[in-house]
Amino acid sequence: MSPSRAPLRLGSIAPDFKAQTTKGEIQFHDFIGNSWVILFSHPADFTPVCTTELGEVARLQDKFTERNVKVIGLSANGLESHERWIDDINEVNNVSLNFPIIADDSREISTLYDMLDYQDLTNLDAKGIPFTVRSVFIIDPKKTIRLTLSYPASTGRNFDEILRVVDSLQIGDKNRITTPANWKNGDDVIVHPSVSNEEAATLFPGFRTVKPYLRLTTQPGKKTETA
Ligand code: BEZ
């Protein structure tokens, strides 16, 4: 079985939904408001990899907040299960998890977001129903999906990488630049191919031409160390 509506792609508007969460009921588009949002699912509560992942997201909470990013988790478990599991996450990871987790026992939202893997028979719960996979959606304040990721149940995600993508997207939205392989906030960036050399001379004084199609410049707005 596969979802009957058009698949969500980069550039799609994130579908709206109403949900029960560990922080109360939300209407997703109202929750997004003027923030960026990371909506991420995990296979199930009380599972080992997921316990480390949600602990890591809780640990990175300040880094998300300083980028105007709200995080929200989801799995096909009920609120009472989420609440009990959060106690374990906090204890095991020595954190205080403060972001909402959606209770999607009906799998309505995970179906809407295509978070259920129908192919992987190792990814079934005790009733033979597929778990939600490790999906990530980065959604911008216009409610546009800017990144999608699906990871196998066996592999915990690297949330520093999610933050890195947020940095790249936010800097790229404000400046006509792109970011190279393994770029980190503060590294040099690439002048967007749509920028002519004449425009680049004004926008990015001192830019360097490696090849006519690969021009590098200092990251706009980069904070420099003061003595
Ligand atoms: C885990 O989080 O460890 C996990 C969850 C579902 C299947 C396999 C691993």
UniProtKB/TrEMBL annotation:
Keyword tags: Antioxidant, Oxidoreductase, Peroxidase, Redox-active center
PROSITE patterns referenced in this protein's UniProt entry, alphabetically: THIOREDOXIN_2
Domain Thioredoxin residue range list: 8-171
One GO CC annotation: mitochondrion
Catalytic residue positions: 50 (cysteine sulfenic acid (-soh) intermediate)
Top-level division of the source organism's lineage: Eukaryota
GO molecular function: peroxiredoxin activity
InterPro entries: AhpC/TSA, Peroxiredoxin_AhpC-typ, Peroxiredoxin_C, PRX_1cys, Thioredoxin-like_sf, Thioredoxin_domain
Function as written in the Swiss-Prot or TrEMBL entry: Thiol-specific peroxidase that catalyzes the reduction of hydrogen peroxide and organic hydroperoxides to water and alcohols, respectively.
NCBIfam families per record: PRK13189.1 (NF009668)
Protein name (database record): Glutaredoxin/glutathione-dependent peroxiredoxin
